Recover the amino acids of this structure.
């Protein structure tokens, strides 16, 4: 390739990426309504908590010491960087736009590898945005920040599966060492966000292992395994060293893994699968089933690609089933959607269309059509927040309460049985790290109740906020309400108590 052609290709890539960035910014402004600058009345649930942690980190607060949650430290690092860019909604929104643009750009490079031109690439990206419209579920959740590392591994995996039989450079130039390091690093990065989000990487690794064993490349398998482990260690070291230096390594590991395992283990895998099949969002299963079988129906490429589609769908289903089947979990199906699009689009480029192609097109059409109800639902939510700017006056009720708290006391406020978004509306940081999902977390980790009782005995919060209906209140808090706190103020949503 001449220097002029290289220069033109670079310019073309830059323009294409900027076009993606512009498209994703407009897209996210409407569908990432929990962080969109166009919305000031809805902060979300998990999304609000993650942003709250990032905001707190700019003030000297730390995850696991000042905020209790099962998500990994790299998620909170992303939130922290967003708050450094711009405190509040805009910073993390900018990170989200860049993240989705990078994800789409990597997908476009995968399409380019399979000889699709720029227009075709852009058209093939539209179904991805269609899926993101509802799987973002308001935005700023772990799955969207997991896309880039997973898609990097998908690109490397597909190139390797395509070239491993004929291309000697992959082995002679030790490219597989870089690939192993990349896979290990990406896997470790996702462990430090949410380990189940790495399910598709596990599928690529498993198919690679099967291939190397069948070809009796045991030495290369050992070298690949070694480079994977090295990449994994490299990705984990910064998080481990940082929290060790803060004396929080034990707290971080217990929060991320112990709480995470107990959260996933509330029900058996079979119970989770039954909930998915019988749940109101069971149409989402099409996002797993269709991509899992379309490459097989199309007889696409080799057994490796087809196995990756089937095994990937199975492992992503397992990852989704380990949680509570929230819609945003299905953002993890995007790599599968990419693998589903490629063989169908390649066949449609041909002059003749086979019966297999017709069957695949019907299945893919059914997959997208089955999501109509969810698309309509989340478009309605977006309209509610972005266009109508309605949130049932939640923000006003929160600020009505927080305004009654003196400025000098706002470092000693605790909201119990109230979701963490309360703090983001009130512009207050919790004085106790157990600042959300109290009843649920106490069920999972009963020791939390003991910690809270000790806090209320030794350093009770100056101000206590409860929902108007209170909900379940532990006995020790109920006793404190009756003996040490005085009722100060109430509105339709909340009650405010002051420590005597």
């Amino acid at each position: 390739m001449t220097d002029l052609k290289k220069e033109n290709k670079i310019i073309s890539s830059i323009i294409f990426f900027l076009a993606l960035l512009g498209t994703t910014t407009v897209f996210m402004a409407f569908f990432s309504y929990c962080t969109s600058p166009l919305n000031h009345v809805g902060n979300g649930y998990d999304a609000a908590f993650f942003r709250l942690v990032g905001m707190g980190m700019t003030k000297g607060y730390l995850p696991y010491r000042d905020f209790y949650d099962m998500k990994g430290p790299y998620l909170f690092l992303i939130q922290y960087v967003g708050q450094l860019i711009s405190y509040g909604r805009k910073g993390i929104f900018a990170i989200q736009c860049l993240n989705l643009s990078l994800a789409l750009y990597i997908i476009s490079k995968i399409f380019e590898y399979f000889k699709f031109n720029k227009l075709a690439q852009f058209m093939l990206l539209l179904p991805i945005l269609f899926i993101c419209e509802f799987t973002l579920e308001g935005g700023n959740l772990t799955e969207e920040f997991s896309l880039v590392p997973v898609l990097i591994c998908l690109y490397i995996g597909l190139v390797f599966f395509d070239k491993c039989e004929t291309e000697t450079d992959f082995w002679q130039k030790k490219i597989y060492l870089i690939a192993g390091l990349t896979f290990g690093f990406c896997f470790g990065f996702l462990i430090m966000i949410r380990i189940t989000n790495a399910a598709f990487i596990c599928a690529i690794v498993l198919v690679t292992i099967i291939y190397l064993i069948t070809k009796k490349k045991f030495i290369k398998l050992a070298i690949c395994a070694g480079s994977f482990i090295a990449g994994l260690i490299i990705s984990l070291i910064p998080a481990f060293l940082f929290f060790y230096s803060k004396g929080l390594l034990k707290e971080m590991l217990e929060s991320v893994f112990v709480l995470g395992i107990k959260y996933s283990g509330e029900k058996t895998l079979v119970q989770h699968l039954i909930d998915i099949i019988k749940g109101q969002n069971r149409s989402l299963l099409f996002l797993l089933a269709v991509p899992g079988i379309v490459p097989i129906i199309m007889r696409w490429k080799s057994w490796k690609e087809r196995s990756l589609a089937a095994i990937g769908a199975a492992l992503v289903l397992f990852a989704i089933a380990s949680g509570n089947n929230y819609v945003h979990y299905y953002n993890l199906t995007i790599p599968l959607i990419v693998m589903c699009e490629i063989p169908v689009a390649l066949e449609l480029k041909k002059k003749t269309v086979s019966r297999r192609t017709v069957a695949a097109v019907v299945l893919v059409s059914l997959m997208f059509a089955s999501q109509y109800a969810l698309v309509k639902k989340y478009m309605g939510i977006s309209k509610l927040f972005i266009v109508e700017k309605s949130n049932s006056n939640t923000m006003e009720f929160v600020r009505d309460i927080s305004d009654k708290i003196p400025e000098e006391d706002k470092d000693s406020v605790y909201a119990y049985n109230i979701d963490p978004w309360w703090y983001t509306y009130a512009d207050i940081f919790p004085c106790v790290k157990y600042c959300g999902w109290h009843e649920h977390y106490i069920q999972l980790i009963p020791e939390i109740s003991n910690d809270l009782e000790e806090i209320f005995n030794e350093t009770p919060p100056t101000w206590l906020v409860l929902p108007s209906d209170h909900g379940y209140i532990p006995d020790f808090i109920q006793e404190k309400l009756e003996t040490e706190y005085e009722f100060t103020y109430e509105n339709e949503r909340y009650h405010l108590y002051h420590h005597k």
